[in-house]
Structures are given as structure tokens and as C-alpha cells.
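Posting for a labmate who doesn't have an account.
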Amino acid sequence: MSEPQAVATRYDQRRKLWRAAIKWPMYSVAVMPALLASGWRLGSAEPMRWDQLLGFLLAAVLLLLWENLSNDLFDAETGVDRVGKPHSLVNLTGRRDGLTLLANAALLLGLLLIAWLTWRSQPAVLPLVLACCGIGYVYQGPPFRLGYLGLGEPLCWLAFGPLATAAALLVLGPPGEVQIPWHTAFQLGAGPALATSLVLFCSHFHQVDEDAAHGKHSPVVRLGTARSAALIPVWITVVLASESIPVLLGEWPLTALLGWLGLPAGLALSRLLLDHHDQPMRISGSKFLALRFQAWNGLGLSLGLAMGALRP
């Protein structure tokens, strides 16, 4: 290979690593609670504040940026990403101080925006979001590192499910709302948050050996790749069933079944992991298939709920 070709190859490889490090598709998990809440409010003919929606979406992206940067920094401390994750921002830049500054800036800006939205809506919004941030910290941050104990998925469900959804419902509603809508938040956020947790679950498959070597006992490390892969079809079924039951009960419109738009990606994910669960190179992109399922499922459900306003 000539020198220009070698340089071009290295440049292309580095560009791909940066694309993987930025992980922009992952931010669909950040915006989903707000999109679901807006779909529900529109479909239920509830008051809707569009400026609040835009503010909450921006704050959610900033807070997930803090979470992603912090996780890279925390994992760098344990060495779990040293070999198996060349797209770690710490590995790419070697600038822990700069990444720490950026992470803290994203956290500060996100919380300031949430505080402003809280002032314009309901006092419970800020504590709900702070609880989400606290969960995000104890997931990977010292001295807790609950993700290393295999608790990442339930923590993820709690943060992106009832807590974030409740905060979004309050932010989008009129300032006079007093009670936290827990029932609606659980019903609306349970299935999509399970889909979000599936993304995290699938991110473990290709790095089982590295995780185990560094004491990170993820569910896939504990169960093994074969048994973990067998859970994927069940997981997807539970997501879709939890979103279909309110339709069968007449509580949601029939159009809410648009959440099933995620099924093709779910089937592809199931086939990939069932057939190749023990081949890290072949399944390294499984979390992006899970992310496609999560995105289409959540967007379809949000749109379907909003279309409920068209019912006679």
C-alpha cells in the first residue's frame, strides 16, 4: 500500500472511530420521554406548551451528553475500555481533563435549563430530573459503580421510564398542575424504557471477556451470551405487549399500535444474537439494531398516541 493510501486508510478509520464515539443515534433515548409525553398530551386533547418541549429536548440531550462523557471517564479509571473500545473518547483524545470539563459544562447547562423549565411549570420537575441524574451517576460513578454489579438495566428503566416521563408530562402541561401523574408516567413510559434498557443490554455482548476481566459483572457476563441472547425475543415481546394492553383496554387509540413499527428491527436483532452471540466481531453493532428498535417503537407510539386526537 502506498503512503497516500495508508494515510487515507488511517484517516477513514479514525473518522469511523469518532463517529462511533459521538454516538449521535444514542440521543434518541434522551428525547423519547418528551416525545411520548407530547404524543399523549396531543392525543388526549390536553394543553401543550411547545416552547417547553423544545427546552426539555435540549436539556435531555445535554444531560445524556454528560452521562456518556462521564461513563467514558469512569470506565477509563477501571481500564475496562483500554483494549475493547478504541472509540472511547478517552482513548481517542487522551485528554481526561478536557473531557471532564466538557462533561461538567453539559451537566451545568442541562440543569440550569431544567431549573428554568421548572420555574415555568411545576416544582417537582427539578427533583425528578435530579433523581434521573443521580441514577446516571451511581450507574458507573465511584464509589457505587452499580453497573459493575449488573444493575444497569433496571436503573436505566427507572430513569428513562417513570421518572423522565413524569417530568416531561409536567413540563409540557399548564403551570397549575400540582400532582405528579405517576399512573400515566408508568403506563406511558414502561414499554419504551424497556426498549431503552435493551440497548444497554445489547451493548455488553461483544465485550464479555473485557468486562469479566475488569470485574464488570453485566447481566450478559453473569448469564453467558447464549442464555442472554435467548432473552431478546422475550424482551421485545414484553415491550410490545406492555404498549398493546392499553389499546386492548380502550385506554389508548388503535393507532398507538404504530409502536409495532419497531418489530422488523427487533426480529433482525433476535436473529443476529441467537445465531452469532459468541462472535464479538459479528455482533459488535447489535446495540445499534436495538437502538433502531427503540427509536421506531418510541416514535411510532408517540405518533400513534397523537393521532388519537383524530378520533371522532
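Reply:
Got it, the C-alpha cells are right above this. Residues 47-177 form one domain.
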